[in-house]
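Handout, section B. The chain below has 325 residues.
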Amino acid sequence: MEKNSLRFRSGRYYTNLPIRDRAAGSLSLPMIVIQGMSARPTLLVTAGSHPTEYAGVEAALRLSRMLNPRKIRGRVIIVPFVNLLGFNARAPGACPEDSVDIFSAFPGTGGETVSYAIARELFEKVVRRADYVVDLHGGELNESESLFLAWYCKVGNVRVDRASEKLARTFGPDYVLDASKIWVNTKRSTLPKGLLVYEAARLGKPAIIGEGGGSGRAGEPEVRRLLEGLMRVCIAIGIVRGEVNERPSERVRDLTLLTTQYDGLLSCKVRVGDRVSRGDLLAELRDWEGSVLQRVSAPYDGIVEITVNWMPVRAGEYVLAMVRY
């Protein structure tokens, strides 16, 4: 058997996913497994790849305590602290050791630093053994609360694309986002390539991002809503007995990140959920003397998905995101 391969068993237990040996000691990710008498279907729930998106982390932990292995069919694997180094450092964004954003580092073949090792081991040892994947996100410490939405990414496999969209709707969000196209200003991003849900879907596994909460808080309403979404998924795929009541969701498409051209002081003029028209003023960037350096306008009719809370921003950083009707 391959070294450090995972062996699962019935019951609820707390274990670790080995990542790599370090100069002193080793790195592993905490992992919780809840398994009934059978191993299928297997649902993987991840959180914390952006380490200060606390609502998702808390929802994942609560799910681990809520599920009773004697009453479920199949297996739920929960990895609540994907960016463990960033979580312990209380640092938003990329892994503080190598400045790599694990969120877009899958399947982990793009480098050899610790973030790629985390992505690679998680992908090879856990994702490949899952039947469905839910990756929890939201706003970080430096971001507002996000829209409550579920993303999925089309990969050109009709069966998987339909199953992922159905899973996104089952999650019960206010909005369902087809994130097959992601833009940075007017240029097409390399994303969603590299996202866990995209790469999992390419393996034939329906996968979604469930998003809610933000501002460095695990707010009770947001945590409960994410937890409800997870339970709805568990019911829909047959892990938990019950019925899923249909909940209407508005479909949106594309995701656009709007960035700054200069270092400066940011002032957002809109809030999450605002519906804006093409050309509307969304944010201003000023220098410390008050002169306007840049005005950020809406590139199309859409909805403000998230905003950045930082006052000082750097050239090239994103200041808010939009989705298109």
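Note. The mean pLDDT is 95. Compare this with the example in section A.
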